[in-house]
Amino acid sequence: MTSALLPTYARAPIAFERGEGAWLVARDGRRYLDFGAGIAVNALGHAHPHLVEALTSQAQKLWHTSNLFEIPEGERLGQRLVDATFADVAFFANSGAEANEAAIKMARKYHAAGGHPERFRIVTFEGAFHGRTLATIAAGGQQKYIDGFGPKVDGFDQVPFGDREALLAAIGPETAALMIEPIQGEGGIRTVPPEMLRDLRALCDEHGLLLVMDEVQTGVGRTGRLFAHEWSGVTPDIMSAAKGIGGGFPLGVCLATAEAARGMTAGSHGTTFGGNPLAMAVGNAVLDVVLADGFLDHVLRMGLLLKQQLASVMDRHPGIISEIRGTALILGLKLDVLNTTFTAAARDEHLLVIPAGDNVVRLLPPLIITESDVAEAVKRIDATAGRLEAQMRGAAE
């Protein structure tokens, strides 16, 4: 049957009807263990009762008024995020791309407000992914996302990951900021070493640049801290977050210091839907859970358990899995078979994982997973690797 939808997705032939915790149920009744979480979005799993109550309660009162008026729950969520982070101010949007657009505009406006409008260029890093708008695909620099959309948006200078000399050469009189993901998600779960983040902070201070952190995928508890950059002791000037912060409801935020946001005055930026009452109710409910005592400790425990058990799977299947990357509950398996082949084979084992760059599959389970969920996922990954090994032996014979 021909679909009325634009064919921009290569969708797997499964439609899900309902979910609970880390499990999804397809329309035909089959159950799948979800270790993709909607690409790190469903941080608290499916149908979390506290989120369901927050959303349905708010839905019975008010959905949308626009930012022409005060939104008390938005004021509350903004204050809670400021209190829990380096930031002084928050701007709410609907997605990670929009949060990154706000961050990019803020970095440029900072210099313009300081009398240097020529400082608009932002240095980014090879393998990055910052979104799908014209500006954010230019920031990410991946040609496969840029091709066919006309001239690349000017103002972004990309350097190889970890190449300090190239970075120094890219910083010039027009440079406004450095922009980086603490762990590249789409790029293949490549972790930026803490010493590199500290060096970026020092370079920004030396050259009068802003440090922008993209924590769209790494934030809201996924690494066992509220935000991944906290592990390095480095403080950004501007940070984007999304995905997990809404627990499945569209929500993004750009957080910044008051100094970095000095150019963002009334009328300089805006959004129709960003910060709407429904999103704010859910965002506050997510923080209720993630900031509760012991929650981040649970994430660390489950992440350590998962990584330890995956190591034994890698030992048993060295021709399939060559490396385990990442930390806590943002992990990647570097493969010696095509990641799309592995993803499809895992789906046959009723396990959902997410392909990424550098021939990696991502494991991004809900943060509420249990020891039994970990054991079941490892069992299914082991079966997937075994299935692929058997296919390879058959092909060789």
UniProtKB/TrEMBL annotation:
Pyridoxal 5'-phosphate binds at G96, A97, F129, D214, E215, V216, Q217, T272. It is found in: Cytoplasm. N(2)-acetyl-L-ornithine binds at R132, T271. Its cofactor is pyridoxal 5'-phosphate. The keyword Amino-acid biosynthesis applies. Pathway: Amino-acid biosynthesis; L-arginine biosynthesis; N(2)-acetyl-L-ornithine from L-glutamate: step 4/4. It holds the Pfam family Aminotran_3. Its EC number is 2.6.1.11. It is an enzyme of class 2 (transferase). It comes from the Bacteria. The modification N6-(pyridoxal phosphate)lysine is found at K243. Keywords: Amino-acid biosynthesis, Aminotransferase, Arginine biosynthesis, Cytoplasm, Pyridoxal phosphate, Transferase. Binds 1 pyridoxal phosphate per subunit. Signal peptide: none annotated. Its main location: cytoplasm. One of its GO terms (molecular function) is transaminase activity. It catalyses: N(2)-acetyl-L-ornithine + 2-oxoglutarate = N-acetyl-L-glutamate 5-semialdehyde + L-glutamate. May also have succinyldiaminopimelate aminotransferase activity, thus carrying out the corresponding step in lysine biosynthesis. Belongs to the class-III pyridoxal-phosphate-dependent aminotransferase family. ArgD subfamily. Homodimer. This is Acetylornithine aminotransferase. The lineage of its organism: Bacteria, Pseudomonadati, Pseudomonadota, Alphaproteobacteria, Hyphomicrobiales. The gene is argD.
